[in-house]
Design brief:
Chains A, B: Its EC number is 1.-.-.-. 2 copies of one chain form a homodimer. Chain A has about 450 residues and is of the alpha/beta class. In chain A, about 40% of the residues lie in helices and about 15% in strands. Chain A is globular.
Chain lengths: ~450, ~450
């Protein structure tokens, strides 16, 4: 077995990432409403020895309720139910730093980590939607830079809260009646521009000490944030070259924050259509594309590029788009869509087809061997430490990946054949906990 | 079987309600840290056909970390894991209206309701602790009346959010690609003194429409709040007469809010020590009292009465206590402790012993038959619609209640022998959902 190993996350969304998945005969739309479907997905991922499963999240319905299948479950409560049905696989939930309190969030993820025996992870997002802001008393979305400033303070407080109970603070001494050593439970007394939090957290230290920190922003601020805090990054990269650029950029930023490049795993997304032959795989993808509803997709695309395209002709190219500087939402996804439309000279209809599988993430149609080759090439050529697998339909698209692609990676010595660790940090080859002292050192180096 | 039936909730706390439970040979202290212990408790409650299980919660560690076993798990995430291990029993979690956002809370409980197939309930509290305020950016606890004003607006918004998706809004029409009928998904556009929330909720209507609303405040504001919103009330009443007074007071308030007295179930707490003979039951209780740590209990009592008693002699009576008007915390519990100490002329040591079982809730030691008789008397004489069972030790104290007391109640035709409903509202004999219109009617009657 080679020394460097793949890390694989299953990004789970309803009955599949393809926007028309729920209408396709390969899925059962009723599964959208059924927690047992999601528990089953957790078990399939565990059968494949995957590092983790992951759920995205948003804090508004958005204007697309007619055609967009809504998430039924909140990610952390859903992952608690999946924890009860699995033993090993990591459990990563999205939660926003733009609304709510660090105390509540720290407690929620500590609880998930306790419930799962050390398998919890937090995908940190800074909600960019105006519809989200309006659900939390704000008339407009905070500016991109404000969101990241708040995110930094939010994460700092959360880390301090997770560290407020030292390892070994619980004594459970039945003889003397001492539950915890008060000298190993600390106030944090944070008093910053946005948050004032006394602590300690109302949860003893969780099995991992700190749930794994994941991030997916790929803007300049996003990459700096990831380099400072994240331990895994989900990213959308469409070509090997773009993937290599992103990978080396992010790893070099890590060094500036006094971290080791191995302390963060880069996991590009891929939407794999897998079949016995390449032709069958392409036909499978086409059968999904054929079900795309243009009305829905035009709204989705309008949202991505910040221009109303709902009356735009499907067979014309995109109209001129605003400068990146004017985008306050997901800057990196905007850039990706703009580049894709311009370099490939696509009509709106063609663009919609390309985006339908994974909202900008790379789609790939081929045999299991071809998928494994593609992944291995990215892994070998410095574009990835592993992948964020985004099955276009569920559960089938996850099953075929686990049952056909994973064994190829295992036979090449690139992926575990059994779990060797019991925590999410363990699966990703990261220390059990970075602890208070090492983070303080980082802060000093940053300010130097 | 008689028409009027008992409703029974199991109030679960660590390895038991008695403050020394974790040190007693009847428990295994390691269970405090083990989610499987709590899943097992859910299954025991379900074996007994109980209506629900319930977890309290607080938003700070408090000053008693040395002796006070801390909750390891956050209630809603814990109940999601228990939902995965049970099929029928209701799942009630405490959450505060004093901190956080209605949008987040509405979503979390909707998710629990989806995950459990309609078994979710919310015990509404208005956190009274200064240590809690300091974890959410406040220098002091909001005044009692402010907390209740905020609670009312918080609950109003939450109910509107739960109603923002009408029954039947999800169409899942694979042919036309229509997920939901946008005409049945509504903005709420709430703009009040404390919250501004656009809606709709990012969760389709949950199986119960609205999770069950539970409340436990017994002050004047608390009783009015309960009469307006609650569907079940947990209360601490030490004597039949006090129980009758509380019961008739609360039911009469319901009528003022245009509600039917049956729309709210009154469930006094009881901490039952059960054994084959009365003497054995009393000896069992004494074996717990003997393990009480005075250092811990004096802090606990100081907290309840708002006077530092940690240097006070254990064998003297309580010092003079402040007037009720000066208490900003749990007013009804303060009054109960003061009355108990004064009417029974107790020393501090005796008072601590009386409070050790259930922090002011009634303890009762006897045979299963005696417990059943006591409960039946309260039920028959207008003091209770059922009970909040607070086992002094777990799991044993719940098992003996389920295996010995429940069959007696069943043989008397006072309690179900099988679940006849699948939702928590169903177990409590309440309508599936009150719906938007009926609540608007209530509001009109209130202002008339």
């Amino acid at each position: 077995m080679s020394e460097r190993q793949f890390h694989l996350n299953a990004f789970l969304m309803g009955v599949g990432h393809h926007e028309a998945a729920w209408r396709h005969p390969n899925t059962d739309a009723a599964n959208l409403l059924d927690v047992k479907h999601f528990q089953n997905l957790g078990r399939i991922a565990e059968r494949g020895k995957l590092d983790s499963v992951f759920f995205a999240d948003g804090l508004a319905v958005g204007p697309r309720v007619k055609h967009n299948t809504q998430a039924i479950f909140e990610p952390v409560t859903l992952l608690s139910a999946i924890a009860a049905a699995t033993d090993k696989v990591g459990l990563i939930a999205t939660a926003s730093t733009s609304y709510g309190d660090p105390y509540t969030l720290a407690r929620k993820f500590a609880s998930l980590d306790h419930i799962s025996g050390g398998r919890g992870g937090w995908n940190i997002v800074t909600s960019a939607g105006a519809d989200e802001a309006a659900n939390f008393g704000l008339g407009a979305v905070p500016a991109h830079s404000d969101r990241y400033e708040r995110a930094e303070e939010f994460v700092d407080v959360t880390l301090d809260l997770w560290d407020s109970w030292e390892e070994g603070a619980i004594l459970l001494d039945e003889e003397t009646g001492v539950f915890a050593d008060p000298d190993r439970v600390h106030r944090i007394d944070h008093d910053g521009p946005r948050f004032s939090v006394a602590g300690p957290l109302n949860s003893p230290r969780s099995p991992q000490g700190r749930p794994l920190l994941v991030q997916a922003g790929s803007s300049e601020s996003g990459k700096d944030f990831a380099a400072r805090y994240a331990e895994a990054v989900f990213t959308a990269q469409r070509t090997l070259e773009q993937g290599q650029d992103f990978y080396s950029d992010l790893k070099s930023r890590l060094i500036r924050y006094g971290r080791n490049p191995d302390d963060l795993k880069v996991l590009p997304g891929i939407v794999p259509f897998i079949a016995d032959t390449e032709d069958e795989a392409k036909a499978l993808e086409q059968s999904f594309t054929d079900l795309i509803s243009p009305e829905y997709s035009l709204r989705q695309l309008s949202n991505m590029v910040g221009v109303d395209l709902t009356e735009h002709s499907l067979d014309a190219p995109l109209p001129p788009l605003p400068d990146l500087d004017h985008i306050q939402g997901n800057k990196s996804r905007y850039q990706l869509v703009k580049d894709l439309a311009e370099t490939e000279k696509l009509t709106v209809r063609e663009l919609i087809g390309k985006l339908g599988g994974g909202r900008g993430h790379r789609t790939f149609a081929g045999t299991a061997e071809q998928v494994a080759d593609e992944l291995t090439e990215w892994f070998d050529k410095g574009a990835a430490d592993g992948f964020n697998i985004m099955p276009p339909y569920l559960p089938g698209g996850l099953e075929i990946f686990v049952d056909r692609v994973v064994p190829i990676l295992q036979s090449r010595g690139l992926f575990r054949t059994e779990y060797t660790e019991s925590t999410l940090r363990g699966h990703y080859g990261l220390a059990e906990s970075v602890g208070k002292r090492s983070r303080a050192t980082v802060a000093v180096e940053v300010s130097a």
